[in-house]
Amino acid sequence: MNLTVPLLAALAKLLSGATMRWHECQPDTCQRVYFANHTSHLDALVLWSSLPGEIRDLTRPVAAKDYWSQGSVRRYIAKCFNAILIDREEIKVHQSPVDLMIREIGSTHSLIVFPEGGRSPGEDLQEFKSGLYYLSKKRPDLELVPVYIDNLNRVLPRGEFLPVPLLSCITVGPPMWLEPKESKVDFLKRARDAVRRLKDV
Amino acid sequence: MLHALQLLLPAAVVAQAPLPNVRLDPVTNILLGTVVGILAVAYFVGRALRRQPESTANPAVIRTLNLRIRAWWMMCVILIAGLWLGPVATTVLFGLVSFWALREFITMTPTRRGDHRTLFWSFIVFAPLQYVLVALKAYAIYTIMIPVYASLFVPARIAISGDPKRFLERVAKIQAGLLICVYCLSHAPAILSLVLTTAPGGPNAPLWEIRRDAANNPVLGSNASVLFFFVLMVQVNDVFQYMWSQLLGKHVIAPQINASRTWEGLIGGTLSTMLAGMLLSWATPFGPYWAGPIAGAVALAGFAGSMTMSGIKRDRGVKDYGTLVSGHAGVLDRIDSLCFAAPVFFHLTRFFFSTMQ
Fold first, then answer.
1. B107 touches chain A (CB under 8 A)
2. What is the pTM of this model?
3. Measured between CA atoms, how close is B115 to chain A, in angstroms?
4. 10 Å Cβ neighbour count for B219?
5. Which domain covers residue A143, as residue numbers?
6. Do residues A85 and A64 touch, judged by C-beta distance below 8 A?
7. Is A52 on the interface with B (CB under 8 A)?
8. Does any CB of chain B come closer than 8 Å to the CB of residue A70?
9. pLDDT tens sequence for chain B (357 residues)
10. Exposed, middle or buried by CB within 10 Å (0-12, 13-18, 19+), for B24?
């Protein structure tokens, strides 16, 4: 058994002081897409670490290739948490990241995505990129689970490389699906509101 | 390793022989045993109350009571484990509690991006260093490190980061966090470094001897029991103030800060704590007369701590530090009075009942 993964997860949880709250949602090993706000490089790592062990093993974060393939430490961490690395610079039609994600998860894995596309500079969420819409259009069976990550931007803000061990909180909300005939704009707005709503529960 | 570090410090700042007794001696064990016994009774009473129908007992009050009892058990276990392992382990454990309290404090008070490096220094340098200095018994350094040097460093570092917005406010937040959560609390394990005497008089005062061993050498009373006495007085004071407030409380001191703190609770609680201190004076070098006033000073400082932290919480619009990040017990809620009382008790003991090394 590989001990590094639980150790890395424990370290990430200890450092970020993360507590996980399941609000109108239960931990489940069914195929899900966890979509969260993005404020810190630690987001993917901490959210993934905070999931219960058996779910964690089935969940693959989608992360930016330009950041996570830089240097051996980041590459190693990305390998440990089984990340799907997406090249943000070269998004092409015949090599669309959505197809790659669908191919990678097969019929067992879940995903962690950050639909804002990059870390938001301010307090409020940025507009969501359309990937989430196409993902659920191609795989309507996936449960879409909104997640709000609070305070991690203070643990490791943009442009800093040393984390400050404050406490953070992750709230997981009720699953949603793409409604029949729902337009892309409406769906993305609804998804964004679902994440934003978790701020106040 | 500790000894190697001590050699680096100038001789004058490191305490010299005679070394204090920090073992769990019979006196300490009697005190610990009594408290563990009372807590065991409290645990079963709490459990019995939980099963009562809602008509006879307010479930919210009982839940609070049970949470409190659990927190006391935690505190007791941590203290006993630390004292059993020795003074360095006790200092490390208090350091960890400090660290967690500082996390809660800074998480609650909003800081800006420009404060990140300063916070990093506070968490990674100042907080651990304070406890290392306490473990080294370097009194002359650990009493000034945070109030002078960290307090000067924090504004300077924030200024260098270049964000002038609400500058003084941000500086004050970090300074207050370090002072209350780290500096003040570190005076509790520092009690273990004092060479206790039964009267004022510095180096010439009579040592706190409890008996003579077979070779007619003096056996000193244990600092472990004095530390435990202090923590016990703070907790007992919280309970007494709450009880007197419930029984007689009419005049709320500051309704906007804390609606449950009354003058009746403060006066009744302080007097009761003084009495409890006198009754337990056998565990200290103070003697029955001085144990009362010292316990009273601890009670007043503990009250001040609770009020101050309530003020900070009301300002931030939270009820408990625990609810800030749900699931956590809220360490700072439990130790606010301890933080304020620790320097008061430490200095009273040091000035009047130690050789002042």
1. yes
2. 0.88
3. 10
4. 13
5. 4-200
6. yes
7. no
8. no
9. 666 676 666 665 555 567 888 888 888 899 999 999 999 999 998 888 888 777 677 777 788 788 888 888 988 999 999 999 999 999 999 999 999 999 989 988 888 888 999 999 999 999 999 999 999 999 999 999 999 999 999 999 999 999 899 999 999 999 999 999 999 999 999 999 999 999 888 888 888 888 888 888 888 889 999 999 999 999 999 999 999 998 998 999 999 998 889 999 999 999 999 999 999 999 999 999 999 999 999 999 999 999 999 898 888 877 665 555 444 458 888 899 999 999 999 999 999 999 887
10. middle
B124, closest residue in chain A (CA to CA): A164
Q: Which of A19, A151, A162 sits opposite B120 (nearest CB)?
A: A162
Domain count, chain A: 1
Closest CA of chain B from A116, distance in Å = 21
Contact B324 A167 (CB under 8 A): yes
Which residues of chain A make contact with B326, given a CB cutoff of 8 A?
19, 21, 169
- Alpha carbon distances (Å) from B35 to A144, B38, B79, B276: 52, 5, 12, 13
B107 and A164 within 8 Å at the Cβ level: the answer is: no
8 A C-beta contact, residue B265 and residue B313: no
Interface test with B, best of A13, A154, A156 (most B CBs within 10 A): A154
Q: How far, in Å, CA of B262 to CA of B300, rounded?
A: 13
Q: Which amino acid does the sequence have at B156?
A: A
Strand partners, B196: B354
The alpha carbon of residue A140 is apart from the nearest alpha carbon of chain B, in Å, by 33
